[in-house]
Specification:
- With 73 residues, the chain is mainly alpha-helical.
- The chain is built from 2 helices and no strands.
């Protein structure tokens, strides 16, 4: 059973990292140096799907870590 949780943990971690890297911020490195010209806009289409998938992968990752610790007892 622990092996299953470990596999789920690794897969969800990889998918979470990939989904974070895929996200387009729309702002480059210039924001780090004070060039902030931000405005509010809502996420639409693929951007919203990737954002929601990132949240789901993070929840699955945390749950699999917690269940893995519980299974060790």
């Amino acid at each position: 059973m622990r092996n299953l949780f470990n596999i789920i943990t690794v897969i969800s971690a990889v998918l979470m990292v990939l989904s974070i890297l895929i996200q387009n911020r729309g702002q480059s490195l210039g924001v780090s140096f004070g060039g902030d010209s931000s405005y509010y806009r809502s996420k639409r289409g693929a951007e919203a799907i990737i954002f929601n998938a990132t949240i789901i992968f993070a929840v699955v990752f945390v749950l699999s870590c917690v269940l893995s610790v519980i299974a060790k007892k």
